[in-house]
Fold this sequence. Notes:
Layout (H helix, E strand, L loop, with lengths): L2 E6 L5 H10 L5 E6 L6 H5 L4 E5 L7 E9 L1 E6 L27 H9 L5 E4 H6 L5 E5 L6 E8 L5 H11 L7 H4 L15 E2 L29
Parallel strand pairs: 1-2, 1-3, 4-9
Antiparallel strand pairs: 3-8, 4-8, 5-6, 5-7
Amino acid sequence: MVLTLRYVAGVSPAKWLRAWTERRPDLPLEAARVEQSEQLVDLLAGDADLAFVRLPVDAEGLHEIPLWEEVAVAVLPKDHPLADAESLTVADLEDEPIAPAQPDSAMTVELVAAGAGHALLPHGVARLHHRRDVVAIPVTDAPTTRIALVWRVERDDDDIQEFVGVVRGRTKRSSRGEADAGPEASARPAAPARREAPDRRGAPARRAGSARTRKPTRRRGGRGR
Length: 225
């Protein structure tokens, strides 16, 4: 038996995968990254047990735990007149052309690099697809996005709840009842959502992966996070 996880581009689930491997060596966890446009496909088809998704999603038939917020960044060509800004506002970009959005966010960044316009992306996605010929600059008044963990209501068993416990920070010895009030509590965050803040110092992004992770995130972060 295997537990299967999908995670949307921009999420790095490495710490949870490591914790799961230590806690449940008897139940392998297979994880694969997917684009946002396909973030629920495998879950709804029954080919995945859980998924880290970017909200909003149609939550009918799903349990949902909102997790952290992502700030928005403007991805611009490196030689753009605004490329040296520490931060931007939506008004700063009002007259700037917008690169056509693609199903694959890497292709959207490719169009930005080619001079097709700018792109407004979640910080995690921009970090994942960083290139030397583009910059990512925080947009201070742009709407944030939120990451959530979801799973099907009919798949809500002890194994699923144990992984939920790993994500929510429950220790191995704590019971579900100690942290949750009941089934309804599964749809609430265990603590206030954290906000992912860009780091302009260019620290490398964490690499996602675990045993059997098929599509690890290995790109390095860059300027303007």
